[in-house]
Amino acid sequence: MNIREIFALNLRTLRNDKGFSQEELAHRANVHRTYVSSLERCVYSPTIDMVDGLAKILGVEAFELLVSKRLPGPQKLGTSDSDYSSDA
Fold this sequence. Notes:
Blueprint: H1 3-18, H2 22-29, H3 33-40, H4 48-58
Helix pairs in contact: 2-3
């Protein structure tokens, strides 16, 4: 899944979680409803300012629109949680 697809999925999921229609989100973001629809269908890529604005409307941090929510896969061989501890 590429970043545009991740953004589109997260945008749609968060919008639905907040109970916003595309039209309501568009109104709050001062854009046309078809633009929100296009973002959710991966037709357009948002500017960084648009990502930030949409995140604020949805009550999340901007990065949350850009990261995959999928569960992490198995760890690579040779790594463990202890490899990342601050005791090193």
